[in-house]
């Protein structure tokens, strides 16, 4: 394509673009921007005595044009004609337009530069009309095509009288031709001054509407012009020129003063109300708090008196408590020690409270490892802890009780020396009774081997020369004497006093010798004894275990009338070993089950009520527990739980 062709195309494009811009912005197509407005809307917009445009809006558009850098031509016409020129595109800017939803469909509005008010004017002697609602059934004057018509039209019970301008409407009001006039506040004040009606007509109520008031251009057109106008209005606001124009044309009107003072009065009343409310609330709150404080003080005093009474009662109880009580705080300072503690430990110094535990004689009676465990939150105890007090041996039962919430420790202890002696006496008494029961069977059992020995000794002279007979006699005599010796050893082992000491012991080693001792009684009553899993080891005192199982086995033998079974079996149960002693005897009546471990309780005619109580005591001292279950006519099962030791495998076997 030639350069000439390119220039032609470029020219066409430029022409089309220019046409589109001018079509969208008609004002740019004119040498001057045509501005139209109302010719009779003082002091906003009107023609003066020389027929020249004047008013606030005129001064404002001149200032805007200067700031925007545009040339303008101002034409003031009747309001309806001015609006039609803009809507027909014959003018570019409409002066002094109140914003309404209806007008927003016809015009694009600039930034508002004034808030226009539509108010009610009535005669000064009218005290009936105070608000818009009072206009019902009255004749009201209004300017034709005025913005007030947008909301008055919704009230058909108001009779409207139309006028060409607000001046005519106010004249008619002054001459009593209408009851009220609705119009622009600023225009109304202007004409009241001009017509000398200031003392005859007044403004009542609050503004019916407060609308944004600015410039308008035809909807969808002259957008570039609209931007320039907006920019200029913002500058006038920023520089203060707009406020100067308002002061020039409107000054400070009586209504503005009244509105200002009403506003101030409202603020003061609201402020006083808020202040009074807050003050009353504070007084109420203060009184409420005072009542709560008084109530809390009363409750605290009451609680203090109750605590003091409880403390006094606790002090008396502690002083009369037979157990020794010592309390230590988190730093091991002795906070409390009662008289029983001093008496049990033989301490004469009563001034131990407030001293450190480690610097008192108490440290010699309570082992440090247990005290340390209590401070770590573990409650622990010692049964029959041996101490020496004033040269005498005593046994103490001690509980170290942790109190984690205050990191304190309470030591509760008692002297069980006499209890231990009494228990040992009861155990020995019970053991003697048991030995007496065993002796009857033992005498019967020993007769058989002695009779055999006697018989062979009588035959020996007759067959002394027979080597085979002599050998047989020697073997038989040895076996029989071994049996007698075993019976005697088992009886002595059971009856002989031994030192109490916990150790790892296999159940088989404890129970088997007892079964040997009781074998004559098993045979006499045709009782079959079964053992199962007795290879488990427990941590306990073997002497005390022998006493417990002997007692349970004798009770089982007594319960079986004629022919029956006794089963002894063990199994793991968590960190314990569970041992069951079952019999097929007559059982225990249900009403006695909760009492059989009570000391001196017995359901037997010849019983003493000591055996099972001692069994429970011994099992508990070995860290275990004992339970009973029985069905009358079917049998009884005693279940024992003991701390686990080292297991040992032993074959199950049947005895008897």
UniProtKB/TrEMBL annotation:
Annotated ranges, domain PAS: 310-366
GO molecular function, one term: ATP binding
Pfam families linked to this entry: HATPase_c (PF02518), HisKA (PF00512), SBP_bac_3 (PF00497)
EC numbers for this chain: 2.7.13.3
GO CC annotation: membrane
Sequence ranges assigned to domain Histidine kinase in this UniProt record: 441-646
SUPFAM superfamilies (UniProt xref): ATPase domain of HSP90 chaperone/DNA topoisomerase II/histidine kinase, Homodimeric domain of signal transducing histidine kinase, Periplasmic binding protein-like II, PYP-like sensor domain (PAS domain)
InterPro entries from the UniProt entry: HATPase_C_sf, HATPase_dom, His_kinase_dom, HisK_dim/P_dom, HisK_dim/P_sf, Iontro_rcpt_C, PAS, PAS-like_dom_sf
Gene3D superfamilies per the UniProt record, alphabetical: 1.10.287.130, Histidine kinase-like ATPase, C-terminal domain, PAS domain, Periplasmic binding protein-like II
Signal peptide: 1-29
Keywords tagged on the record: ATP-binding, Kinase, Membrane, Nucleotide-binding, Phosphoprotein, Signal, Transferase, Transmembrane, Transmembrane helix, Two-component regulatory system
CDD domains registered for this protein in UniProt: HisKA (cd00082), PAS (cd00130), PBP2_HisK (cd13704)
Catalytic activity: ATP + protein L-histidine = ADP + protein N-phospho-L-histidine
Residues annotated as transmembrane: 264-285
NCBIfam families per the UniProt record, alphabetical: sensory_box
Protein name stated in the entry: histidine kinase
